[in-house]
């Protein structure tokens, strides 16, 4: 059974899906005229601006929406996933993760824009949006929307709860000798206290929690890199060289480098999977384009910043050539090798990253479940999701990891089809938003001119 399910996973995440993911990103990049590069500085400024929109419709602020998405996105993939990519694909896989992120920013922008444009208000006044809504309302393909919601609701139990709680339990047991079931119970209670309050509670917690955990890991990783700064040039040279030669990959195949770089890049930043736009739809915003810019920064922060720190450090350490270690263990040992005690950065980071993913995916899963079975089903979903956290902590999750991969891939297919089909809507909304930005810029310059005249 395990071998059969693994083969299905290999088929789902085979070259056709990877080509579709990257191809969609490239297509959207040209359609929005490389907006993810030209507007990135403004998008980052917008994402971290304190004065957020309080008058527009929505449940949470721009920043809280971004932090909820990052809570789900920044997870074990940033630590274990990058290590797996480097082991199986070689150092060059890091380069292809970067490429995936750069085109993925266009994908994430388009997802968020459509999510806000086609979102609806539920019976209790909460926003509901995401691929299932823009597939149904934008394309009229209800059956495809139902498929996405079904895959999303199931995937949340895998990548969102059981896999993450198991990662936390394993890390805590290894470092502190705590029984996995005890860790599972504590994590279950911590999860329940947050998710039972809904998106507003999740948004408040992640807005406080995610920046702290990300800064901790980024600062710790940068300290290790600067502590070994003399090794950085050679590590970067190896990454770029191996990206086009594949000498370090199994069999020296360039295709292997690209495959694992793209696959793990997508797994980490989730661009194209359709998960992040569910959080984007809850944001208070005056225009879909504004929230779309903020959402695309999540891919930049996740892969270009966090994954790069892990990837460069792994290449500097050189332990990836040892076939006996992989995943989080490889990252931990590498950090320890480059800086005594550095492994604690990985252990603590893994715990925080995994817990945040539990919170973010709880919201994704419940919105998919709500789409399928109505608002009354949310409490039932939250209950079972919370219980799955403690179950996952004590399980052997090799099979669950594979199942999670399958449903993550199945989520992406309906979403990518919709993104290509609705590209014209994305372009039209982007042009409209660019006019708004131009007016805002003109008004700002006029205000400055008047102020200077008065002075």
Can you give me a brief rundown of this structure?
This protein has 455 residues and is mostly helical. 79% of the residues lie in helices and 1% in strands.
Query: Uncertain runs with pLDDT below 50, 5 residues or more?
Result: none
Number of strands: 2
* Class derived from helix and strand content: mainly alpha
Measured on Cα atoms, how large is the radius of gyration? 21 Å
Net shape: globular
Q: Please tally the helical runs, counting DSSP H or I stretches of 4 or more residues.
A: 20
Q: Write down the overall mean pLDDT.
A: 85
How is the main sheet built?
A: 2 strands, antiparallel
By CATH, the architecture is named Up-down Bundle
Query: Helices and strands, in N-to-C order?
Result: HHHHHHHEEHHHHHHHHHHHHH
What does this structure look like?
There is one protein chain. The chain has 455 residues and is an all-alpha fold. It has a single domain, classed as Amino acid/polyamine transporter I (Up-down Bundle). Helices cover 79% and strands 1% of the residues. It has 20 helices and 2 strands. It has a two-stranded antiparallel sheet with strand order 1-2. Strand 1 and strand 2 form a beta hairpin. Helix 7 runs antiparallel to helix 15 and helix 11 runs antiparallel to helix 17. The longest helix is centred in the middle third of the chain and has 35 residues. The model has no long low-confidence stretch (mean pLDDT 85).
């Amino acid at each position: 059974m395990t071998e059969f399910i693994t083969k299905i996973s290999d088929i789902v995440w085979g070259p056709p899906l990877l080509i579709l993911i990257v191809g969609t990103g490239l297509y959207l990049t040209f359609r929005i005229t490389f907006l993810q590069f030209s507007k990135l500085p403004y998008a980052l400024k917008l994402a971290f601006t304190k004065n957020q929109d309080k008058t527009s419709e929505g449940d949470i602020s721009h920043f809280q929406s971004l932090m909820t998405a990052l809570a789900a996105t920044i997870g074990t993939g940033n630590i274990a996933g990058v290590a797996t990519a480097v082991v199986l694909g070689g150092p060059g896989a890091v380069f292809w993760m970067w490429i995936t992120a750069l085109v993925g920013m266009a994908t994430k922008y388009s997802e968020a824009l459509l999510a806000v444009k086609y979102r609806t208000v539920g019976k209790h006044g909460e926003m509901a949006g995401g691929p299932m809504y823009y597939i149904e309302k934008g394309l009229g393909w209800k059956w495809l929307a139902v498929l996405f919601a079904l895959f999303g609701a199931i995937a949340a139990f895998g990548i969102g709860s059981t896999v993450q709680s198991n990662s936390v339990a394993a890390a805590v047991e290894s470092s502190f000798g705590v029984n996995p079931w005890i860790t599972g119970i504590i994590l279950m209670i911590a999860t329940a206290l947050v998710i039972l309050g809904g998106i507003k509670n999740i948004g408040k917690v992640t807005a406080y929690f995610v920046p702290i955990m990300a800064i901790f890991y980024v600062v710790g990783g940068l300290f290790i890199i600067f502590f070994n700064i003399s090794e950085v040039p050679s590590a970067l040279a190896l990454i770029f060289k191996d990206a086009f030669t594949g000498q370090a990959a199994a069999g020296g195949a360039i295709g292997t480098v690209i495959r694992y770089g793209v696959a793990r890049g997508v797994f980490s930043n989730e661009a194209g999977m359709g998960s992040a736009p569910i959080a984007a739809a809850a944001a208070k915003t005056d225009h879909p384009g504004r929230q779309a810019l903020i959402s695309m920064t999540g891919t930049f922060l996740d892969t270009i910043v966090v994954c790069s720190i892990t990837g460069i450090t792994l290449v500097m350490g050189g332990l990836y050539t040892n076939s006996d270690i992989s995943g989080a263990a490889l990252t931990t040992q590498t950090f320890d090798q480059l800086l005594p005690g550095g492994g604690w950065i990985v252990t603590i980071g893994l715990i925080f990253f995994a817990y945040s993913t539990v919170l973010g995916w709880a919201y994704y899963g419940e919105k998919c479940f709500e789409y399928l079975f109505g608002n009354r089903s949310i409490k039932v979903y939250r209950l079972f999701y919370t219980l799955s956290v403690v179950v996952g902590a004590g399980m052997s999750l090799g099979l669950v990891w594979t199942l999670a991969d399958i449903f993550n891939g199945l989520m992406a297919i309906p979403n990518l089809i919709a993104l290509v089909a609705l590209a014209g809507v994305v372009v039209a909304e982007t042009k409209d938003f660019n006019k708004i930005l131009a007016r805002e810029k003109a008004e700002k310059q006029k205000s400055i001119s008047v102020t200077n005249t008065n002075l």
